[in-house]
Specification:
Layout (H helix, E strand, L loop, with lengths): L4 E2 L2 H4 L4 E6 L23 H14 L6 E3 L1 E2 L6 E4 L8 E2 L2 E4 L4 E7 L3 E7 L5 E6 L1 H6 L1 H11 L7 E5 L9 E2 L1 H11 L7 E3 L8 E3 L1 H11 L3 E4 L14 H6 L8 E7 L1
Parallel strand pairs: 3-8, 4-6, 5-7, 11-15
Antiparallel strand pairs: 1-2, 2-16, 7-10, 8-16, 9-10, 9-11, 12-14, 13-14
């Protein structure tokens, strides 16, 4: 099976933008990393990861592009990339650029990859957003960083790629308390109680919460509706592996570039 990726119709319509939310298909890794594992921090062979990352970038026709990634730390730290930037894995959870030929990437295995593009200004971004980054404000940090280099809020479109969805994302009551205290707005609509016979069971809707953050940042938001936990043939999932008694897991990559 070849390399596969999903796309946003809205982002695909932006002139000069190439992007892809990659599945786990089409790589060279095996076992629990089968097969397009793109996470250098995993215990997979580094040679395999390098080959997988190259296959992903090549699938977008970006062979001559430089691929930038992050040491993801569940923060609101955003790096602005230009022609002088190194491709080291800087600590943070967001990348933005207005330079052509620079492919921005984030990794995920339940946390949400979010790709951004200004529809007119030639500014793009990529963010890694789990619940900690979401409540801390990674979306707004991305928007502010994009606007500094020429984007306008009213022209920014953000797409949420493969991530864990509510029916698969059980949380504890202390999580709800943290969510409420950190968010600064009512969060009841993003929490669903479990069945009556299971007391104290709650489920968090991460994509809906991110869409609310997009709304509050005055940008357009979109969710592709891809649940990493449920779609086990297509995506890696940290939580699914944990439930299966595994301590390791692969990571899928999401990429955006101004070609």
């Amino acid at each position: 099976m070849g390399v596969e990726y999903k796309q946003s119709i809205e982002l695909s319509a932006v002139r000069g933008v190439r992007h892809g939310f990659f599945t786990k298909s089409g790589g060279v890794s095996s076992g629990i990393y089968d097969s397009l594992n793109c996470g250098p921090a995993s215990a997979d062979s580094l040679d395999n990861v390098i080959e997988n990352r190259w296959r992903a970038i090549s699938a977008l026709g970006l062979q001559e592009s430089q691929l930038f990634g992050l040491n993801q730390i569940h923060s609101t730290k955003v790096h602005t990339i230009d022609k002088k930037s190194s491709d080291d894995y800087h600590p943070g959870d967001g990348l933005v650029t207005k330079e052509k030929g620079m492919a921005l990437s984030v990794l995920g295995a339940d946390c949400a990859p979010v790709l951004f593009a200004d529809k007119t200004a030639g500014v793009i971004g990529a963010a890694h957003s789990g619940w900690k980054g979401s409540v801390s404000g990674i979306i707004e940090s991305m928007v502010e960083s994009m606007c500094v280099i020429g984007a306008s809020r009213e022209n920014i479109h953000a797409c949420i790629g493969p991530t864990i969805h509510q029916k698969s994302y059980e949380v504890r009551e202390d999580f709800i308390q943290q969510l409420e205290s950190l968010s600064g707005f009512a969060t009841e609509q993003f929490i669903k109680k479990g069945e009556k016979e299971v007391q104290g069971q709650f489920f968090f809707d991460l994509p809906a919460y991110l869409l609310e953050q997009c709304k509050r940042s005055q940008i357009q938001g979109e969710n592709l509706g891809l649940d990493t936990y449920e779609l086990d043939d297509s995506f890696f999932s940290f939580r699914r592996n944990t439930h299966q008694g595994l301590t390791e897991y692969g990571r899928q990559i999401s990429v955006i570039c101004l070609a």
